[in-house]
Amino acid sequence: MTETDLRAAKQEILDYCLRSMEYGLNFNTQGNISVRLPEPDRFLITPTDLEYDRMTADDIVVVDANSNLIEGPHQPSSEVTVHMAVYRRRPDVQAIVHTEPVFANVWGVIGEPIEGALVNMVIYTKGAVPIMPFALSNRTEFGDAMCDVMGDLNAVVWANHGLLTVGPNLRDAFKTSVAVESAAQVLLHARSVTSKPIVLDYAGLGITESL
Ligand SMILES: [Zn+2]
Fold first, then answer.
1. Predicted pLDDT of residue 43
2. What is the percent of the chain with per-residue pLDDT over 90, rounded to a whole number?
3. Is residue 61 part of a domain?
């Protein structure tokens, strides 16, 4: 990867970080974004504890699959081991977005999966979004446990914490986060008037095309 391409990849991460705040998916220094680089065993990830509106592309750091800092002026996100567990388990995943949006978090607090309220969500997630029971996300065992819950889906809610989405590129991983939060909001409204809202079963939709 050329220096120019690396710089563009860092800028793209920063752009989506800022967009996550604009869309109300994150507050303070919450959330993190990473991408898999074309070089073997190299990933870009946001640094720990730095506000997005104070971040520049130069603050995004390079790590290896063991979460070691390879290059950059900061330590990686405290949830770097979660990202690396996903890249290890899911070779199809090229980008990961972790946010802490309100409505997805409501379902995590209730402890119920986010059912397929909207077709836009299930196309991206490939099914109802499961809930990973609460555990501290900076512990190394969290990543594997979360991957077990997420399986082949593209999203998982961390109870009492937030949302993680994955994709074949950063744009799709981010769009999945937005789609989940939107469906989570609609489903909550629907459940306030009926205990049995109409929801979609992804497998029954016969969608074969990938993102
Ligand atoms: Zn978090």
1. 98
2. 90
3. yes
pLDDT above 70 for 209: no
Instruction: Give the distance (Å) from ligand 1 centre to CA of residue 99.
Output: 6
For the chain, give the mean pLDDT. Answer: 95
Whether residue 125 is contained in a domain is answered as yes
Residue 75 within any structural domain of the chain: yes
Residue 47, domain CATH: 3.40.225.10
* Alpha-carbon span 177 to 94, nearest angstrom: 15
Range of the domain at 164: 3-205
Average pLDDT (67-80) is 96
Q: How many structural domains is the chain composed of?
A: 1
Instruction: Report the pLDDT value the prediction gives residue 98, as an integer from 0 to 100.
Output: 97
d(CA 124, CA 64): 28
Ligand 1 centroid to residue 138 C-alpha, Å: 9
CA 140–ligand 1 middle distance (angstroms): 14
**Residues near 142 by beta carbon (within 8 Å), at least 6 away in sequence:** 81, 82, 85, 135, 136
Q: How far is the CA of 118 from the centre of ligand 1 (A)?
A: 25
Distance 198 CA to ligand 1 centre (A): 31
In a domain, 104, yes or no: yes
Q: How many Å lie between the centroid of ligand 1 and the Cα of residue 164? A: 9
Contact 92, 168 (CB under 8 A): yes
